[in-house]
Design a protein that fits this description.
The chain has about 280 residues and is of the alpha/beta class. The chain is built from 11 helices and 10 strands. The protein is about 40% helix and about 15% strand. Helix 3 links the parallel strand 5 and strand 6. Helix 6 crosses helix 8 and helix 9 runs parallel beside helix 10. The structure holds 6-hydroxymethylpterin-diphosphate. 6-hydroxymethylpterin-diphosphate (HH2) binds next to strand 3 and strand 7.
């Protein structure tokens, strides 16, 4: 399986690590840490040196209750960081739901648009179609400010699958090639801890929709609910969730802690490489 993006065709025969670069004053786990341009560019360089396969640059926090940011301010936060990131030799994604920011990011060389609103904003499909960009279509409901109230589902797995399937169809009908599309269940977005865990337990059914899955569990609140740990002490929990997600069909893991995730996936790959295929096992017996 591959993910076609503008400059790179990403081979997904092994899980890939997407390193998070939040150029925001208020992101839930690292807000304010990289919100000056120089620090954010240094962070991009560090993540690539640590083994990130993809960078994901965001200029607006999507944490519950985050205040909205207008397109000009969002673009002003990320423009110089994006310009530097596209010289680093890895695909660069921009995390935005605003068509105006998408258009500017693609003009500036972004490879991927990561949209937590799954290209539902008027003009978003047109901003991406025909550019060759990869897209990540994520499930959520409402806006960050209101999403907690909307965490009510009949069957969360069926509802999320139906939404993602429909958004992928709409994207394709708008001219975005299937090979450019990844889907994301949107862990933590308009979902309770119970919903998030149920979705992870049943994530294979989303993988069966036929598109690569991109997932983000890194440091999220459900991990704090389970372990009782604050956001800066959720590395072990994040790794456990990342590995469960990979075993349930995820191809791209969106994380803050790149070196630890890369190591965990190296061990995973080493065990895979040592695994005897079932047919050979039968011959041995
Ligand atoms: N999670 C966050 C933001 N963007 N994009 C995708 N595709 N999937 C996710 O799970 C996802 C996402 C939230 O995490 P973070 O960027 O660290 O926080 P904030 O939104 O507060 O900047």
């Amino acid at each position: 399986m591959h993910w076609q993006t503008r400059r790179f065709r990403i081979d997904l025969s092994r899980p890939r690590v997407m390193g998070i670069v939040n150029v925001t004053p208020d992101s839930f786990s690292d807000g304010g840490r990289h919100d000056d341009t120089r620090a954010a560019i240094a962070h991009c360089e560090r993540l690539v040196a640590e083994g990130a396969d993809i960078l994901d640059i965001g200029g607006e926090s999507t944490r519950p209750g985050a205040p909205p940011v207008d397109a000009d301010s969002e673009w002003a936060r990320i423009a110089d960081v994006l310009a530097a990131a596209v010289t680093l030799g890895v695909p660069v994604s921009v995390d935005t739901f605003k068509p105006e920011v998408m258009r500017r990011a693609l003009e500036a060389g972004a490879d991927i648009i990561n949209d937590v609103q799954a290209l539902q904003m008027p003009g978003a499909l047109a901003a991406v179609a025909g550019t060759g960009a990869g897209v990540c279509l994520m499930h959520m409901r409402g806006e960050p400010a209101s999403m907690a109230e909307l965490a009510v589902y009949g069957d969360v797995v069926a509802d999320v699958a139906a939404f993602l399937d429909q958004r992928a169809r709409v994207a394709r009908d708008s001219g975005i090639p299937a090979e450019c599309i990844t889907l994301d269940p949107g862990y933590g977005f308009a979902k309770t801890a119970e919903h998030n865990l149920r979705l992870l337990a049943c994530q294979q059914s989303l993988a069966r929709l036929g598109y690569p899955l991109l997932v983000g569990w890194s440091r999220k609140r459900t991990l704090g609910d389970i372990t009782g740990r604050p956001v800066d002490q959720r590395l072990a929990a994040s790794l456990a969730a990342a590995l469960r997600a990979v075993s349930a069909g995820a191809h791209v893991i969106r994380v803050h802690d790149v070196p630890a995730t890369v190591d965990a996936l190296k061990v995973w790959a080493a065990v895979d490489a040592a695994t005897i295929p079932p047919t050979a096992q039968q011959e041995d017996a």
